[in-house]
Structures are given as structure tokens and as C-alpha cells.
């Protein structure tokens, strides 16, 4: 499946292409930024994180040099929520065509469990986590 659209943000309007093809994760041609977004569930609840702003988001972050997308997803879950990934499934790839090149965003679904209580994100980006009913995500 492929979905093409345009999105408009405060930075401008960008072409976006979504695909369910994980082979794209092996080809970095034209990609200047690689990120992951993880929809992590613990006991049926969606894990969301907050960086001190008014916005709550799913777990996610940048793919580090030499790291695969799924490895980055597992690392980000640990860093941002102090949770262990029990299972992980690829959902799809969203390419955002920006002036600098492609921002490739891989999406994953995970089942997780806590290592222990969340204390802090090693990068200091995330200050709080919540487990919410998935039906409440728009709130």
C-alpha cells in the first residue's frame, strides 16, 4: 500500500509518502534524517511520553549512526519509558520530502513491560510517561 499526500506545518508544505515496505529501511539514498515512532502497549495501555511541553506523543527518536531502525525503536523504548520490548512489529515508513532531503520515519508496534519505575530519560528529553486507554489518545 502507498499513500501520497501533502502536509502543511509552520515550516511549510511537504510531500509525504507512506508505504508498508520494510525494504526501504535498507536504502538510505536521499535520506538525511532517520527517526522511529513506536506505538508501545503495556497491559493494553498505550505508552505516551512528555518532554515538558503541552504535547504528549508516542515514544520515538533518532536512529543513531550504524544502528538499524528496529534497534533504535527498542533503545528508544528503554530510554524514554524504562520499559523492555517483548515483541516488535513493523507498521510502515513515512517519507517526508523536506528541502534538505528525505526525513524517513519508521513506525513500529510493540508490546512492552516495565524494567522498573520511570525515573528519567538519559538524554533528559522526556520528563514524564503515562499509560492511557488507547481510545483516549486524542485527549
Number of β-strand runs: 8
Strand content: over 45%
- Give the N-terminus to C-terminus distance in angstroms: 29 Å
Low-pLDDT runs:
none
What is the helical fraction, as a range of percent?
A: under 10%
Mean pLDDT: 94
Give the overall shape, derived from the CA principal axes: globular
SS element count, helices = 1
Largest sheet: 8 strands, mixed
Structural class: mainly beta
The Cα radius of gyration reads 15 Å
The SSE order reads EEEEEHEEE
Question: Summarize this, please?
Answer:
By secondary structure, the protein is mainly beta. The chain contains one helix and eight strands; from the N terminus they run E-E-E-E-E-H-E-E-E.
Describe the structure.
This protein is mostly beta strands. 9% of the residues lie in helices and 55% in strands. It is built from 1 helix and 8 strands, in the order βββββαβββ. Strands 1, 2, 3, 4, 5, 6, 7 and 8 form an 8-stranded mixed β-sheet that branches. The two termini are 29 Å apart.
